[in-house]
Specification:
single chain, 15 strands, 18 helices, 8-stranded parallel β-barrel, polysaccharide degradation, TIM Barrel, 3-stranded mixed β-sheet, alpha/beta, Beta-glucosidase, GH
Length: about 500
Amino acid sequence: MTPPHLRTDLATGPAGRATPATAEQERRLPFPTGFVWGAATAAYQIEGGAAEDDRTPSIWDTFSHTPGRVRNGDTGDIAADHYHRYRDDVALMAELGLQAYRFSISWSRVQPTGRGPAVERGLDFYRRLVDELLEAGVAPVATLYHWDLPQELEDAGGWPVRDTAERFGEYAAIMADALGDRVALWTTLNEPWCSAYLGYGSGVHAPGRTHGPDALRSAHHLNLAHGRAIAAIRARLGSSAQTSITLNLHQVRPFSQSPADLDAARRIDAVGNRIFTGPILDGSYPADLCQDTAALVDWNALVRPGDLAAISAPIDRLGINYYTPTLVSAPDRAGASAVRSDAHGVSEYSPWPGSEDVVHHQAPGPTTAMGWAVDPSGLYDLVTDVSRRYPRLPLMITENGAAFDDYVSPEGEIRDPERIAYLHGHLDAVRRAIADGADVRGYFLWSLMDNFEWAYGYGKRFGAVYVDFPTQRRIPKSSAHWYADVLRRNSLPPLGG
């Protein structure tokens, strides 16, 4: 069972909402009592063991083994070898003082074809992992899907096909039966925007398809899969089961206040954000989204009777992932074309179906190794905007972090002051949002450790813990020690202190 104090924090008890503070009070303000501190990972990025214990290929296995898809030909075959080293990794979590660990489950490890009975050896790995976490006093937060669709389901049509959502509901039932109430919080999907638009629109992610209508169909079927999973979890575990979805909501900003730029921002907000929050939280797809994309899909035919009721089933938390703001404008009057890029790669195809002509600009300010602008104000604005729109829905920051060019010093240390500054700024933004009334219950650092960074392979390091991939040695970076201090304090130390 989940340790009582962690179960209260994650499952039933409010973290405590702060009242607005003065600037002087805010500088001394701790996080609320019961605020949950954690870190996050994803199965394909860290597990390895790609062909062990009856696991079959996922779309990311196929994609990464396709020449030219991933930098340097890297794959997740071994990754951080977490499949064999999970006990050491959990011990490291406990050493850092993590209260919760957000991990994802490899669908093809537990249900290799995406249908039919589960493989007990695959389930046993997650049973052992959860038991190890509970023994260490770390609350397990399970994500059912972090982009690794079983290849057999992709061969049958993938997310553009409605049946995939039905299969996902069956998979969710399997996991609910296997792990039951030992999981503190169930997350259905991680960033369905990426699954739909990077996988089926721009093609920079698995399965690498480039078809705008299929990207939109995938978005709806991912929403439906979320609804089917919520129903399955509730049916197996009852109303006490805590459920959520994690969205990488875009903090969309217009390049100027011109009507054309404001409309460009509206369009990106519709296809990037409200295509998910609309049906999940409001029970309908936005009318302007349907109008913008009417040439690509027939929404009246795509959305069947009963779909919206299933998708809008109540959830207990909304997870928000944030890294950098999205700055857009209308097409350049001088004839410049839209930038065919996004946060995960460059493609001649757009990840914004129906809004392909909107121009995406580099936001001002310093950047990370990913080329993403460092802008904590975007996280503050995003959290407060969502909180005002959905005031009764508790929020959690389920991913936030930065990649930098980390290296081991001659003394055997990894000093990453840029990451510490990034985290300090963004945690301060969360604290200010809480002070201004946002009900934020926790924060999960991305990522616990360096890993396979999707199409970038092993060239980008997000971890608080350095992984020397040839030896699999783990070395906590300066940021890991800094984050551990934040956890102990439940407040931010002075930057540089």
